[in-house]
Specification:
Radius of gyration: 22 Å
Helix content: 25-40%
Strand order of the largest sheet: 3-2-1-4-5-9-8-7-6
Shape: globular
Distance between the termini: 18 Å
Order of helices and strands: HHHEHEEHEHEEEHEEHH
Number of strands: 9
């Protein structure tokens, strides 16, 4: 079951109780058949179920009206600790810092900004960077989506890749790249301007070379700077990069407020791990 630390024996016990409450057939308390059946379940069905429940959650959530009411999907990452078994150490090598640690699993998810429900995910070991892991999920984005991420995703490669592969998908996020307003192409308003980002000389370490060469040499991005306020928290001044270049359709304040909603939801993964007691998974393989 999906209850925290629920064993196969406990799952069978709950099914027995459910059948008894509703006058169903009597079943054996042995859990061997249940465990074998569970091991045969194809993993892709779990991803399909995850997507279906997220879509249903979005239908039940109040609609968002900013940014032309476009769907916003947020990329975020986390890590999980695994039991220290030989198979786990082989597949998910522990980090040596400075002493050997437990095996760790890195997870990157796409979740809906509307409901906070996880849409899809991908996983790897701690050597897997979040950006190439997100690249594996770009096919989950559809025209008119807006992708949102933190400073680990706001770079030339991802934004140019979206323009090349998903030209009708836009991006909002922070960036580790310095955005100097003195080099702007044009001013859209106070703390709101356009800039040209040029492709670097060195190819991307994770992007296939033909795809890297197909990226444009230069893209135009929009820089929005402002303050975000949440009651009970200190005011934070942030700088965002986005491909939403039309200031009349996408006002700077709406971009900032949408990113602020991401802040409120970025603890979703931590909440999920705490609620389901997933800080350390039980799987031994």
């Amino acid at each position: 079951g999906f209850n925290p630390k629920s064993s196969c024996r406990e799952a069978v016990r709950q099914i027995q109780a459910l059948f008894e409450l509703h006058g169903g057939p009597s079943i054996s308390k042995a859990n061997g058949a249940y465990c074998r059946a569970k091991a045969r379940l194809p993993l892709n069905q779990f991803l399909q179920a995850l997507s279906a429940t997220a879509q249903r959650a979005d239908q039940l959530a109040p609609p968002l009206t900013p940014l032309q009411a476009r769907p916003v999907k947020v990329a975020d990452g986390t890590s999980l600790t695994l039991p220290d078994t030989p198979k786990n150490r082989k597949t998910y090598p522990p980090v040596q810092c400075p002493e050997p640690n437990f095996p760790m699993l890195r997870v990157v998810v796409l979740f809906s900004l509307l409901s906070g429900a996880i849409l899809t995910l991908t996983s790897g070991d701690l050597r897997s960077a979040e950006l190439p892991m997100l690249y594996q999920m770009l096919g989950q984005l559809v025209p008119n989506d807006i992708l949102m991420g933190d400073r680990g995703f706001g770079n030339f490669v991802l934004l140019a890749l979206l323009r090349h592969l998903q030209p009708e998908v836009d991006f909002i996020g922070r960036s580790a790249r310095r955005s100097d307003g003195r080099r702007r192409l044009g001013r859209l308003g106070k703390d709101d301007w356009l800039m040209a980002w040029k492709r670097g000389k060195n190819p991307s370490l994770w992007l296939p070379t033909p795809l890297w060469l197909a990226l444009p040499m230069e893209i135009t991005v929009r820089i929005v700077r402002g303050s975000c306020y949440v009651k009970g928290f200190r005011v934070r001044r942030i700088t965002l990069v986005t491909t939403l270049l039309d200031a009349s359709r996408y006002p700077a304040q709406e971009i900032l407020q949408t990113y602020l909603r991401r802040w409120r939801l970025e603890m979703c993964l931590d909440d999920l791990k705490t609620t389901l007691e997933m800080e350390m998974l039980r799987s031994r393989t």
